[in-house]
Structures are given as C-alpha cells and as structure tokens.
User: Fold these one by one.
Assistant:
Number 1:
Amino acid sequence: MRICSIRLYRHLLVLLLCAVLSACAATGEDVFALPECGPGRSITLPFLMAGPMPILRVRVQDVPVRFLLDTGAARSAIERRMALALGVMHDATRENIRDITGEHPADFVVLPKLDIGEVHLTDRRVLVSDGLPFDGVIGLDILSRYALELDEAHGIAMLHTGRMCEGQRPFPDAGMIDMPAIQGIGDGRDARRRVEPFLLVAARLDGVLGLAMFDSGAIGGSVVSPGYAEKVGVSAAQLAQDQPVYPRGFGGKIALHLHRFGELELNGEVFRRPILMVSTDSGARFQLVIGADYFRTHRLWFDFASKRVFSVPLLTQNAPGS
C-alpha cells in the first residue's frame, strides 16, 4: 500500500534539501536537463550480469573490455593495468576524490576513443583505479546525459534520449512506483559547490526520514551512513556486536557492520527487518545507499532530466538486506 503520496514526498524532499544541505547551493546551469519533452531514440547497451556485477561490454581504442555499469559513480574510470596496456597513462593528471574509504589523491587520463554499443565518445577524461575485478567503470558523467533503464534480472540496460512529458509513464505495470528526486550536491567542502548527477529520493528507516541514493555498483548491498544509523537509534555498542564486512573502495578496504533494522520504506514500498551494512566513515556523503539487493529485484528507470526514479518490483518478496 502506498503510504505517502507523491506530493508529500516532493514536500519532504524540499525539507530534506534544506536541512541536510543547508549550506550548499547549486550554481550555474543544470547541464543534465533537456529543454523539451517528447520521444527520442532508445539505445540498447551491450549488457550482462557477471555474478552480482552489472557489466557493459565496451571498446576502448577499439579493444574490447568489460566496464561496470555504476550509478553510484559520479565519474567513469579505467583500471590502471588496462590504462597502461592501452598506452594512455602518459598524460595522467592528479586530483583528490572521495569514496567510502575517505578522501584520496587520484590519477585521471584521457581516453581518445570510447565506444559503448552505439554510443561513441572521444577524448573522455576518466579516473584511474587500482585492483578492480573488471576493466573500468561507466559512471553518471556519461549515463546521466540520457534516461537510463536497467533491469538486471532480465539482462536489460538501455539509454533513452527523449524526455518524458508531464503525466507520461515509462512502464505500463500497475505496480510502478514514481519517486520524485533531487539532484545530489557537493558536500560543501568544495568552494565551487558543483552540482553532481546523483538522484536522491526520500526514505524512512525505522521511521526516521532520510535521503537515499541508488548505486548499481554497490554489489555487496545497501549501506547506511553512521550519522543516519545514530539518528535511527543504533548505538556504537550495538554495532560492535554486529558482524563486520570488508568491501573495497578506491582507497582500499573499510570495515562495515551488518545490522538488522526494523523497517525501510521507499515511497510506499516497505521492507521488513532488512539487514543493511552500516558504514564507519564519518564523512559519508549519503545517508542511505541502495545497492545490489534492490537492483536485482526491481526494474528501474532513472530520468535525470525530470529528476524522477521509477521502479517496478519484480518479485513478491524483495527487500534490501534480505
């Protein structure tokens, strides 16, 4: 049963934006918005599931490689060994980035030619990463230029160039959930306060309102920030009794704790007693990251232009942390 109406969620999102990001204000144009609504072109991506990993078969410098499809990555990346093999490391530049393991210096290189099915890109600047179990990452710097349709259960990934008009629905399913979103904003430490492409939706964890980001690259599952867990009422002593897990980020491994919560609600869809990972990173940028445990049981449509996320549950029993 839908607990909150779309109008209420829009109101809650505005309140959350003021409360959580009160010091941040986006400047400049929204480069992800399309000027007109209407039909466009649909591009089928060369997509497969490699175990829990959503993989795109792409070509870099005409060499076939496998990149993770990652809605939780603001920037696309290439594995260092692959960058070296392709001979693109000679013009590497360096800047700081932040992930679940903290802030780290990182190398960037320019890929002269990157082909993702029918999407052909030139001179694409990407992050250089180390120790990935795949050749690279396709992130939101590329994906958010389109509407993204993703159905991991059926091996479907598509990009849509059109923008839906008011009242349009991407899926005909009666159980489709329409989640109004706001666009993620930098954490305030960056003086430029650059608008980022993440779409954030309202969530309730054990009755406490928060913001959730969808991350197809979080193959270990959904993650709660320590600050959000504390607001929910989870103490450090409780977490110390929970099972630790050690996922890998750009800066190496970090300890997270598996904790059973009472209830998670995403725009009326309720998940009972989910086991979610709780981060130990006090600088975590998102209160809740929705990971692979959600993606593998839902059909999703990310409309970056209109800032909406559409979801269709594929199974009767589906829950983050199940």
Number 2:
Amino acid sequence: MLDVKYYKDYRHNYLILKDNGCLAENVYQRKMVTKNKIMGLLESQERHINGEMLLYYEITSRQSLASIYDGKSIGMEQLCRFFLQLKRVNEHLQKYLLDSSCLILQPEYIFQNIESGEFYFLYYPDSEEGKFSELLDFLMSRVNNEDMEAVEMVYKIADLTGKEQLVLDEILRWFQDDIIDVREEGKAKTQYQETAGGDFNLQKESRFFEEKTEDNLAEELPEEKERADKNKLIITLCAIWGTWILGSAVLAYLKNNYEFSGREVIYLLAGWIAVTVLALVFSVITLHREQIENREGEKSRTEPAEAYRYVDVSEYAVPQPPEDSGNTVFIPWSENCENKLYSMDRKNKCHIDLGKLPLTVGKLAGAVDMVIKEQSISRMHAKFSRNGNSIYVTDLNSTNGTFKNGMRIVPNTSEMIEPGDEIRLGKLKFIYR
C-alpha cells in the first residue's frame, strides 16, 4: 500500500511518496527518475526530511484519470490516445534501462494535462502497486457503452489478459495494430486542440493523428493567400511597366525612322508623357489597394480568431445546469430540496446546483460539468461528490485553492460540507444551504 500525501507550496502541487524500503535498495532506478526528465513520467525530486527519504512528484496543472472520468465515460478516441502515449513511455523507459512494471497504473496516480491531452505516469522503483489489471478494471467500468468500438477494444484486452500471461509490451503492440486499422477506416476524431510541439504531439508523431485539423488548415490558408496576392501584385506591376516600355519603344522607333514636323514631335512627346503618367497612376493605385487588403487581412486573422476559438471550445461543452442570473428564489428547507452553493459575490451570481453529483467545476469548457468564467478559477478547480447522505468537496490541484470556512483544503483530498459552511473557489465565495 502506497503511503501518499499531497502538498502545495506557493506555485506548485506535489504528490509525495514515502520510502517503503524500495528507494534505498534501488539506487539506480531512483537516480534515473530523479536526475533525468524522462518523457511521459512525472518529474520527481528526492528529499530527506527528518531522517525520511521522500519522492516529490510534480502534478501542477494536471488531473488524475479518476478525477477526469468520475461520472464520465471513456470512448475509443480516449483509449487510443492513452495507449499510444503509454507505449511511448514504455519505449523511453527501455532507453534508460528502467522496468516498465514499476509504473503505478492506478487511475488516481495517472495524470493528464486536460488542454494538451498529454498523459503523465508515476514511476516508483520496485513497486508492486498499480498493476495492469487495476487499470483494466477502471477502463471496463468507465467505457462508453454506446461506443461499440471502445467496448470491443476493452473486452478484447480483458480476454487476452485473462487467457495468457502477457507483458505490457505485447498488449501495446497489439493495440497499436488496432489503432492503425481505426485510422484507415476514418472513424476517429480529435476532441481537444493539440499543442504545437513536444514528443507527445500525436499530430506529428502518430500515424493515427496524421490528418490535418481545421486549425492547421486555417493557419496555412492565410500564408498561401498572402503568397498568391504578392504574385498577383508583381504580375500587375510588370504588365503596367511592360506596356510603358513597349509604348516608349514604339515612339522612339517612329521618331528615329520618320521625319515629323515640330507640331507632330510635340504630339509624340505629349503621348509619351501621357503613357508615363498613366503607368505611374496605375502603379500607385495598385500598391494602395494592396496595402488596404493587407490591413483588412491582418484584422480578419486577429480579431475573428478569438471568436472562432471561443465557439470551437463551446462545441465540446458538457450540458451545464442553468445559471440563476436573477434574484435568488427562496426554496423551503426539506429533505427533498436541491442542495446548492449560493454565491456571495454581488458581481458574479453563479450558483452551483449540487442536486446531481458528482459535479466538477472550472473554467475549461468540455472538461468540467459546470463552467465558471472567472480568472481566479482553475481549468478543473474542484469536484463535489456524495457519500451516503453527506456531500464532499475535493480540490483538484487548483492554483488559487479551495477553502472551507477559511481553511485551505489540501489538494486531492476531500472535506465534508454542511449547511452554513462557507466555500471559497479562488476569489468566489459561496454559502452552502
């Protein structure tokens, strides 16, 4: 049994593991994971406090699988993403001569960055905790029953694991083959917008995510349009001055090969001046028009982009409980009443309905059940759950913390709340009734 504690300092959240006898014996593994930044593993530090050896794992801005999928289902897309990254982590461990069986595969100790989609795993030397069977039980209980591909995939793995003594490498190789088949059929779609770099950028490294998204095409189209506009401008200017050169050459030929009177020479000179003026006028007009189009193009690429991102994120938003933007309606207290957190902020009257639990709150649409648009709120800030007749609040590694009656709740720990308690999420204060 792992002895796990959570700690938050000024800007970081940590998961702390005490030495259960393995750390002192496995010096090589301990030094490898603490002295190197191994892709896909939680960064760890070795500390000695009061004669005890501790490992501090950085979990800032990351959420555990248990928190993310508490009350939510897992589809084929999420399964593919998870196993692809688990395969890469396994490959990195082999480069450092580390044993993949030391990965803690319990859902509460597997973390994900909910914006980039990257998974991070906890490595504890010579650990017997968190074997693959525990992760498989979690996936089977959370799989989306309406996604037949995901259901079939999970139960294939369960059947394969039950029949043979398979190591993780073999399961990952088998799963990779299935992922390629799914990509060729074109049945998988990306859910979150990927970041631009990193080894876990599946759009660049995985054949499963090779197809370009609309965001990538949107970034390429302005460049192609700008290139085409420049070519068009060059062609137009060449045509104008080519015509001027041709006209000047014709006038020069006529003057040198024919005799003209004084008046005719004046007419020829006036014609040459007129052609020159027209060429200059058309050039100025063309350049001026190009500048106007460039300004409008830059404006359209900046201002509407923000609106597009807002609409794009909202498409994945989970249906949210209606917010009470008006006056508070009095509800008589009874056993069957809907429990609520009532906002104490005059400017932000967002009440949190605790009638349907579990409920996660934060500011990232699509990742939480209820979106609170407040800068002091984290992307996934807190979770409310029920145990029997009691309601608990859990802080989800939030930056500005979750408080009960002025006392800060330790990250990833739960506190029971009772009527009359003051709950603070970031800067927002609520009263539980």
